[in-house]
Specification:
Length: 131
């Protein structure tokens, strides 16, 4: 994490990209356990934590909301989803097609976050070059 106000958005994007990477690992783990009896699919929650942190602020200015975020408190957590649900007789609730869809969606999010960080760095670079 970079300790300057100029990097607030980059720090948030970095935290989100790290959470997306972790979610990718969780989804791949679900796919690896597709044939494990009684395995229940897991997922990772970060987006709702970030949305709550941004909505709790008393200001309407997004720059100030991002500057006031306590990134150390935004820790994504893995949870078991639909633990009482099972698609098969062996108690497993992982569906390969659904997981592959989640994986594709998450990869798009991850690369979008990386692209956004690159754009932020390019903006800072442009400002520094004009000075």
């Amino acid at each position: 994490m970079i300790g300057s106000d100029a990097y607030n958005y980059i720090n948030v994007l970095n935290k989100a990209a790290s959470a997306s990477w972790k979610r990718n690992e969780v989804i791949v783990n679900n796919l690896a356990n597709v044939d494990t009896p009684d395995y229940k699919r897991k997922d990772l929650d970060f987006e709702s934590l970030l949305a709550d942190a941004l909505s709790d602020s008393s200001t309407e200015n997004l720059d100030k909301k991002v500057a006031n975020l306590q990134l150390s408190s935004l820790n994504p957590h893995v949870f078991t989803e639909y633990s009482e649900l099972s698609y098969r007789y062996d108690g497993n609730n992982v569906d390969v097609d659904t997981e592959e869809g989640y994986l594709a969606d998450n990869q798009i999010k991850y690369y979008t976050l990386l692209n956004s960080m690159t754009q932020e760095f390019n903006r800072l670079k442009m400002v520094l070059n004009r000075s």
